[in-house]
Amino acid sequence: MNQLDDILNCSICLDRYKEPKILPCHHSFCAACINRLKINGSVTCPNCRLVHDASKNFVTDFRTNQLLDLNNQELTQNRENFRLVQPSAPLANEFNENLLNHNRRQENSKKEKKKNYGAIFIIIIIVLIAIIFLIVFIPYLKKSTIYFCNASQFWDGSKCVDKSHYKEYCKASFECNDMKSLLCINNSCKN
Asked: What confidence tier does 57 reach under pLDDT thresholds 50, 70, 90?
């Protein structure tokens, strides 16, 4: 609370004064709050603890009433000025525009990060698929290589089928993964 609130608020109900009355000790309270303090025809001031005769009518606190009126007029005038100034204030509009642009940039950067994460995720998936392919199919590709015997022109998936050939004589001269497209003539392959 600021100092003006301390002056304009009742110290009992802590609200703005409603019909402020002043006790003989010069402390002010709402009329309703003073009536609640009456016990056996007397009122004890909550601030200074002086006991006052409640049979007398307490005087209206005109000074506090004037301050309340001035404060209400000032608040009303400030509200009207704010309404008049706000739409035509270029600084406020520029601030709002800058704030909106900042929020849009943040949203766009979040979307770009999500796109980047998506691209990275796709690259990781492709690399994993390539690794799985290499692990699973490389042994199969090695086994399916076709060897040809120079002497007999017989072929097998891994060795010469002619049992009479010796290892040193029967050496593979061609390798191809597609037997149908290979025609071996005079130690050369043609498609």
From this structure: confident
**Per-domain residue ranges for the chain?**
3-85, 89-142, 144-190
- Torsion, Cα 101 102 106 112, to 10 degrees, reads 50
Q: Which of 7, 3, 25 is nearest to 16 (CA)?
A: 7
* Residue 42, helix vs strand vs coil: strand
Give the per-residue SS3 of 74-101: HHHHHHHHHHHHCCCCHHHHHHHHHHHH
CATH code reported for the domain at 3-85: 3.30.40.10
For residues 178 and 176, give the distance between their C-alpha atoms in angstroms, rounded to a whole number. 6
What are the distances in angstroms from CA 150 to CA 71, 186, 189?
Answer: 114, 9, 13
pLDDT reported for residue 19: 85
